[in-house]
Please model this.
Amino acid sequence: MSRTPRHPTREQIELPLVLDCLSDPIRLAIVYQLAQQEPVSGELCCGDFNGLAGKSNLTYHFAKLRECGLMLTRVAGTNRFMRLRREDLEARFPGLLDAVIRSAAKDADRLQHLSECEVVKVD
Model:
């Protein structure tokens, strides 16, 4: 049995599902934090988001982000590492991810979840 989670192919990523997924503040905060981490390592592990919600709630949100095609999950031992699927999203919906991240950055104070996340912030 494979431990690798199922990810949609690039062609299977659908705009309505992506937009619906991004409408949740916690998932938007996760995407924003992953984008902030891209210049450093590109990946974060599940525990890096403990400030956002409880473990089972985060598991639900990670699955939603993966299933809609926003995020790629890599399993290494007992750890799960996540990163954005920037290339696939840019190919399917040019400029969408950057627009979402810029908007999230402007609303970071209003989206109180962002300041609670225990992730290294990149300038």
In short: The two ends are 41 Å apart (CA to CA). The helical segments are 15-22, 25-37, 55-68, 86-92, 96-106, 113-116. Residues 113-123 have pLDDT under 50 and may be disordered. The first helix runs from residue 15 to 22.
